[in-house]
Specification:
The protein is mostly helical. It has six helices and no strands. It is elongated and about 155 Å long. The termini are far apart.
Length: about 170
């Protein structure tokens, strides 16, 4: 597409449907190919057994088939064990890569939320939490100290009293 021109939605939809049709036809063809390959493999490796014979021959054939099934089961079990071991090792390596790379912490966003809303988000909606701490406090009344009015008195009188004391020390 050129810089200024955009594809119309109908054109885009038409191309998308064509791609889906082609993909669907490829899937159908792949299924046919898999079935043909399976049939060819079965014809090559598993010929139809000759069931014409006496009972002893059929028993011998069953024993051979049973032994072949045992070998195949052992091989399948060994392969499954190897795959499981490889999966565990892959998981361990993934964890090591994450540990080496370190987890990048996202930048925190500033959120305006009251303490009540924060606790409710953490504890869930079932718990009723009230963070109004002032409501839980006791009311304390301040005691007003009343200073005796006699002590304040006239400041001139206090000065005169102190002057009298001073004279008392000087005379002795």
């Amino acid at each position: 597409m050129s810089d200024g021109k955009k594809m119309t939605s109908s054109r885009r939809h038409h191309l998308k449907s064509l791609m889906l049709q082609i993909a669907a036809s490829w899937i159908v063809q792949e299924k046919k190919d898999n079935e043909e390959a399976k049939a060819a493999y079965m014809a090559e490796n598993c010929p139809t057994p000759d069931l014409s014979g006496d009972q002893a021959a059929l028993m011998e054939l069953c024993k051979k088939i049973y032994q072949a099934i045992d070998k195949i089961d052992e091989a399948r079990y060994d392969i499954e064990a190897k795959v499981h071991k490889a999966d565990v090792e892959i998981e361990d390596l993934k964890l090591k890569v994450v540990d080496l790379a370190g987890v990048k912490k996202p930048a925190l966003k500033k959120v305006r939320m009251s303490a009540d809303a924060m606790l409710q988000a953490l504890l869930g909606g079932k718990h009723k939490v009230n963070m109004d701490l002032r409501a839980n406090l006791k009311q304390v009344k301040k005691e007003v100290k009343e200073e005796p009015t006699e002590a304040v008195g006239d400041w001139r009188k206090n000065i005169e009293d102190k002057a009298d004391r001073k004279k008392m020390f000087e005379t002795s």
